[in-house]
Every structure is written in C-alpha cells, then in structure tokens.
Amino acid sequence: MDKSWMRDTKWSKNYVAGVKSFMQFVRTHMGPDCDVRCPCKNCLNLRFRDQRTVTHHILENGIDTGYITWFYHGEPRLNNEGIRTDSDPIEVNNDEEDDGVSEMLFDLGEQYTQENNDNMPTDDNNEDELDDTLVDYCSN
Fold first, then answer.
1. What are φ and ψ of residue 49, in 5° steps?
2. N vs C: which end of the chain shows fewer Cβ within 10 Å?
3. Separation CA 117–CA 109 (nearest Å)
C-alpha cells in the first residue's frame, strides 16, 4: 500500500486521496461505524474518535508520519520491525533454575499482612478504644 501521501502537503490532491484511501482501509478492517484511534499529529493514536472526526483531524492536523504500520487500524505487524505478530510463537523457557524471587515476594506479603494484623484492634475492644480516643481528643 502506498503511504507516500503521509508526507505530502496537507490538502494537496495526493494527500486528500491518501486520507480517503486510509479511511477506506479503516472501514474494511475495522468496520464502518466503530470508533477508532485517531492517528493525527495531535491525538497520536491515544484517543478514540468516530471515523468522521478522524478524517477531519487527519486533514486538518496532518497524520503522524511515524505511524508507518497501521496496526491500530488492522494492518498486520511485520517481523522486520521487531514487533511480534499474532502468528509468532511465544517462547517460554521453563529450564531456568528457580531464583527464589516468587517465594521471597510471597514471604514479604505474608510478613506485611501479619504486621498489619498485629496492629489492628480486636473487635471486642474496638468501640472502647474509639471512645477512649474521642474522650482524649475532646478533653484537650
């Protein structure tokens, strides 16, 4: 797909034709009525907009020229860009020795929970402690 229009002057014939081509690509891959990420220079694919607004934004603000592979809009990610495609297998290495991190985090969690529980008042004394605190506070 020709993306040279992305670097053309806004509102030039080639640029406007490219925006129309991009939006047709979006409708084909995402559907005609869904909100999509806006690749304009202001939104930078961070905000979802309706397709009419996206068209307007790209025409008015320009498109983010760094957005080369339109993966947010249905174009497959390419391996040569260093991005995992959906068809790439995920390698899991279970042969590594246990470094003990999981156990250490578990122990820390238990220690933190125990320390907090030790400092909590029991239900039996809770109302009495609250009354004593309020009396002390009001007396001062």
1. -140, 160
2. C
3. 12
- Give the Cβ contact number of residue 121 at 10 Å: 11
Within 8 A by CB and 6+ apart from 33, the residues are 51
Mark out the alpha helices in the chain (DSSP H runs): 13-30, 51-61, 101-118, 123-139
Give CA separation, 70 vs 5, 25, 85, 92, in Å: 14, 10, 13, 28
pLDDT tens digits for 52-90?
Answer: 999 999 999 999 999 999 999 999 987 665 554 554 444
Low-confidence ranges of the chain (pLDDT < 50): 84, 87-95, 134, 136-137, 140
